[in-house]
Amino acid sequence: DKGTYPYYMLKEIDEQPNVMRKLSSEYLNEDGSPEIEEDLLKSIKQADRLYIVAAGTSYHAGLVGKNLFETMAQIPTEVHVASEFAYNMPLLSKNPFFIFLSQSGETADSREVLVNVSKAGYKSLTITNVAKSTLSRESNYTLLLHAGPEISVASTKAYTAQIAVEAILAKGLGEADQIKAATEFNLRQQLGLVATGMQTIVDEKEKMNQLSKDYFVNASKSFYIGRGIDYFVSLEAALKLKEISYIHAEGFASGELKHGTIALIEDKTPVIGIITQKNTSNLTRSNLEETMARGSKAITIVTKALAKEDDDIIIPDVNSMLTPLLSVIPAQLLAYYTSLNKGLDVDHPRNLAKSVTVQ
Ligand code: M6R
């Protein structure tokens, strides 16, 4: 039931702070350390490489996960699009471990991979929102997203829940090995900050509505740019805009623009820069300026610590690995309002189904 909300998508965006709190209480001890099945941790520890396999938004959450697993657990991690992996399998490491990310747990492309790797005798974990779903039943381990039902075709709270669960698992693995990047902060406290930060952003949703009316409703194309995890969020932000507002949007590595794509920038083309990482913030800013020199309307989503006077959307500071949990929220809202302002059916975009059960 969507209650007083006009669309499920807005309800689900608003639910995200509570999902973060729920995950904290489901998976973290009072002292902030993760409580994860010993057997799962042991099984992953035996692997020399993680393979994250997923589709769409879940694939984008996997990209963010790579940074979490490599930083906190120091396990090399590859992320793959399920439909590609299924028929063009890369050369695997000696002891691979598979992680399937899927909101529904029913995505046929991911299932095809799971069937193949299980046949080959490899162990797997499914991170999903649906207990007893196909992927959950057919893999060795399951971690639930506890996000509550996600009805809108455009995935929002499942994406942030997937990132949070990946962070919890990565931290559990890293703590077991006393890896400093995992032990040096309290995840319970951080997810608390994330929840409060999400709330601040959704409370300012009118701002995104205004930006949507001013720069997006009449645009035919747009870009999100960033580096590292900001680039990964750019991919997700662009997908949100494409699927419900039908505006052509691309997520781009900001340094790669000048190698070709910048030719697409015209007068008033909106380009949103996501800037949350200290080591790359100035680089992305100068890439944004390069687009402005070609006439773009540049908009910034920046963490408070890195913000400058003319920035547009300032998001609260959290641990630098966890910024995707906040930087994606303005993008979700911008996509929502652009779809709404164009008079489209936000929850049921054309040509799309909630769960894709064909290959
Ligand atoms: O249920 P899954 O997470 O496996 O679904 C994967 C994609 O089909 C899904 O994320 C899709 O890209 C969404 N419509 C994106 O908003």
Automatic annotation (TrEMBL):
Keyword Nucleotide-binding carried by entry: no
Catalyzed reactions per annotation: D-fructose 6-phosphate + L-glutamine = D-glucosamine 6-phosphate + L-glutamate
Keywords noted in UniProt: Aminotransferase, Cytoplasm, Glutamine amidotransferase, Repeat, Transferase
Active site: K354
Coiled-coil residue windows: none
Superkingdom in the source lineage: Bacteria
Record-annotated SIS domain positions: 40-179, 212-349
GO molecular function: glutamine-fructose-6-phosphate transaminase (isomerizing) activity
Enzyme class, UniProt record, top EC level: transferase
Enzyme Commission code: 2.6.1.16
Subcellular location field: Cytoplasm
Purpose of the protein: Catalyzes the first step in hexosamine metabolism, converting fructose-6P into glucosamine-6P using glutamine as a nitrogen source.
UniProt subunit comment: Homodimer.
Name by which UniProt lists this protein: Glutamine--fructose-6-phosphate aminotransferase [isomerizing]
Full-sequence portion shown in this chain: 249 to 607 of 607
